[in-house]
Amino acid sequence: MKFSRRQFLEMTAEASALVVLGSSAGAFAEQMSGASTWTKSVCRFCGTGCGLYVGVRDGKVIAVSGDKDNHNAGYLCMKGALLPEIMNAPDRLQHPLVRKNGKLERASWEEAMSLVASRFHDAIDKFGPDSVAFYGSGQGLTEETYVANKLFKAGIRTNNVEGNPRLCMASAVGGYTTSFGKDEPMGCYEDFDHADVFFIIGSNTAEAHPVLWDRILRRKRANRDVKIVVADPRKTITARAADLHLSFVPGTDLAIVNAMAWVLVNEKMADEKFIADHVTFGEGTEAKKSWTDYKEWIAQYTPDKAAQIAKCRPEDIVQAARWFGAPGRNAMSLWTMGLNQRVRGVWVNNLVINLHLITGKIGLPGSTPLSLTGQPNACGGVRDGGALAATLPYGRQVANEKHRAEMEKLWSLPAGTIQPNPGMFTVDMFRAIESGKLKALYVMCTNPMQSMPNVGRYRKALENGETFMVVSEAFHPTRTSEMASVVLPAALWAEKEGVYGCTERRYQLLQKSVEPLGEARPDLEILCDLGRRLGYGSVVNFRSADEVWSEILTACKGTGYDFSGMTRERLRKSHGLLWPMPSTDHPGTKRRFVRGDDPHVPLDHPTRMEFYGRADGRAVVWMRPMEGPSEVTSAEFPLYLTTSRVIEHWHTATMTGNIKEMKRALEATADLHPADAKRLGLQDGQGIRVISRRGEARFRLRITDDSPEGLVNIHMHDPERMCNLMTTDAVDPISKQPEYKICAVRVVPA
What we know:
single chain; globular; 31 strands; alpha/beta; 27 helices; about 30% helix; six-stranded mixed sheet; seven-stranded mixed sheet
């Protein structure tokens, strides 16, 4: 019998362990590569932040080897192990391009930058600073994103600064800030080694974060009493290895998590001492409720009621809650896009955090809520660095007068320079192309004309409008660079130096290994050049990434993020440092808000935790009701569509699509349950059209029980078969993050 690659993975319960290369493989790579030098760095792909060494020979990257002294203990996934192939890929952009007579043509740096500066200058003069915008990435280096943020907010004086973390992590930010008063996870990767229960919801960890998944499997192999609970509509590779797979109708997980809380309360698994010391309760936008109020409110979410809503088994909800709440056992929750990319993403983030606060399983080794990050620097560069429309660096808010004054002082600006109103959030920013309000857009290190939801709408707006779009990109063509007015060749990964900050608040230095290819330049250099040409040279007067980092250390000092002890020299020597780290002799913080660990909590604090992001020092358990998706199925659109990832590719495949070993998995198929296929008269492998209210695309049908009845699944990576032609751009009202994960479609033969 013949098996496809995916069928083999699905049939192997611990499959992803096969595609994680350990330290012995790294040692073999070092011995066999023939590299003349090895430079310490960090993987370019997901938010796990695996440490590695880059091997160079004759000025080219030829190998990588996992860093055995980093959190990944020398392990790399298959994508990380094949990183050298992206560096000299055939579609690396090596010189600037300028659109002339409708076509992109080679240009000099002087011609390209003069044109960019002229068009931005004209837009600002004629229509004001809010007619221009910056759209960045969780892949840019911290120093690059900091300079872009400063140039636009302090120089140009617009808060129209956004980035693709709005599309992936904004609801996690909203969850943390509303529950704890501060963004970013409070636990660390070491918690994996102490957890007795892993509650994984909205995450296919095995494919999206394989090195962390391998760590979970190692924990389970060491202790067979460890339980893995996976809540996911699909039977993913992660779900197939679970002790309990809890499948449900898309968008109904709020009812399930509330029902788990019902079990914890009614079966006396709540830690009432912890609640009395550390917790308050909230409904709507105010935290003025009591434990009694919460118990009365949660009474409506019985397992039977939730199971009826979610079309799952009530006994599975009860079992998941009992494992999570069992006294004396540590519980860790993990989630990512399946929760975040929802119109009630913030609410469901709150509900998962509630489970920890009710049981007191928080701030302890092995007990923590940990959102997994999709990009290598979404945390450190964009979230922490305040490079979004409503934020300023290191926990400051645009709308807060005191915070604006602090940054104006740090940046040596006249009072009132920073605008008091938030800029346009991502979806509004791209809608401003459609309305004609946005005259010039600078896109750096991302591919929005493939990754935006309802992307056909914005591609049409860009084609038909007059927005001048400059794209700084290492590869060409991408689905975004093909539409640009100017494309600037950006240095890639090992061709420059800077800092990445990953999921667990770990900051690491990527050291430069080779010179940029062709005429490519680091984004930091490009942004400073643009600033000088626009007349803001004094605002971005930096000569190196080291100089930017020195200013960043000043900006973070005294804040809840304080990592002012992370000097450049300390980063060079270390294998990752966890903030807060307020002095050069501080060891770093494994668990935030914990007395004796977090330097912001006094050693004489009367209880073991202080949630100092809130004035009362208490975390909030929120009463968040069940609320469905923005779009439900109907007679015309009887199936749900969800989007996913596969282990071989990453984001829009501009990088992984250049790795020859991965190309076979790039084609996106439409995955459909056998019963749905039979009902529609469809055969495995035939061409079909997937149609939503917004658009359609053609795919090859893959019949599989990975998808439950009523659900079509398509991976997000394929640039030729774009799932985002169908997805909805409805957003969470709090986080402004779009609901990629759920929309209604129909399927017909092609």
